[in-house]
Design a protein that fits this description.
Length: 298
């Protein structure tokens, strides 16, 4: 009887382990080519520690199957390293699978230029949601919650609110640290303003557009390409409301940095839809990508 109970417990443990897993399938790259440093060991150790930290941490209480983990990348391009202090940039990217296809859609493609942190080789990395541990941990934890929140918003309307709240908590804890990127008076395009905008009721249409674009649009591309395109047009037209609130909205830049190439591809083939009004909207709300919008054939 004892052996049966032990065997049952073992099977149950393995089953639970497969269901309740970490949320991220993250790849961290630490590029130190710009740093005048002969010994590269510390950069390799940093890269290894960050990969282990991000992929072993449970960020929510949601159940994720192994194949449901969010594919994402954190690319640190370091420009300075002196006395345990690192400076550089961080490119954060994430994607989500499209239903009934082999295609992964880009959701986030963001460059953070305010990267600075202190790190000693083999220093343990710990996340504590109620305190500021280190700027390095705060930065990657902030973007982890941002990635998870955006991913959840693409599957359920406003589904990522809990993760966004956690990202905002990290901002509030880090604001007194003295490191760049956390305070509203430093810049109008930093980590503070990014999460502030996402959670603002003034920009609810941004999150609604994320949901419509992915769940009602991309996820139906295989089964009903025409109706899927109509939903994607609706999501883009909906973003004009964000523009009307703030023409230079940070969120519009975030959206089209990730989606511009995809939008061109979607409307360059398959069933024709009326693009006239939406093309005008695209040129209005995202003029930086006008060269790409011109590639869309009517």
């Amino acid at each position: 009887m004892r052996s049966f109970n032990f065997f049952f417990f073992l099977i149950f443990f393995v089953f639970i382990h497969k269901i309740i897993s970490q949320e991220l399938n993250a790849q961290v790259i630490v590029n130190s080519n710009l740093v005048n440093q002969t010994n590269q060991q510390i950069f390799q150790t940093l890269e290894k520690s960050l990969n282990e930290f991000l992929n072993n941490q449970s960020w929510t209480n949601k159940e994720f199957l192994s194949n449901e983990k969010i594919t994402c990348s954190f690319i640190f391009t370091l420009s300075s390293y002196k006395n345990d202090k690192f400076e550089g940039t961080l490119q954060v990217q994430s994607q989500r699978p499209v239903f009934d296809s082999n295609y992964d859609s880009p959701v986030l493609n963001f460059l953070d230029k305010d990267i600075e942190f202190k790190y000693q080789e083999f220093q343990p990395l710990f996340f504590n949601k109620s305190s500021f541990e280190s700027n390095l941990v705060s930065i990657v934890s902030y973007y982890s919650f941002l990635i998870i929140g955006l991913d959840m918003d693409t599957f359920k309307l406003n589904g990522g609110s809990f993760s966004f709240d956690n990202a905002q908590t990290i901002v509030n804890l880090a604001r007194q640290s003295g490191f760049k990127g956390w305070n509203p008076n430093e810049s109008d395009r930093n980590r503070f303003w990014l999460i502030e905008s996402i959670l603002s009721n003034s920009f609810n249409d941004y999150r609604e557009s994320l949901y419509i674009y992915h769940k009602k649009g991309l996820d139906f591309m295989t089964n009903n390409n025409f109706e899927a395109k109509i939903s994607i047009l609706e999501s883009i037209n909906n973003l004009e409301k964000v523009y009307n609130v703030r023409p230079d909205s940070y969120l519009l830049q975030i959206f089209f940095d990730a989606k511009s190439d995809e939008i061109v591809n979607i409307f360059s083939g398959g069933p024709k839809v009326d693009l006239n009004s939406t093309l005008s909207v695209l040129k209005k709300i995202s003029p930086f990508f006008n060269s790409k919008w011109k590639q869309i054939k009517m």
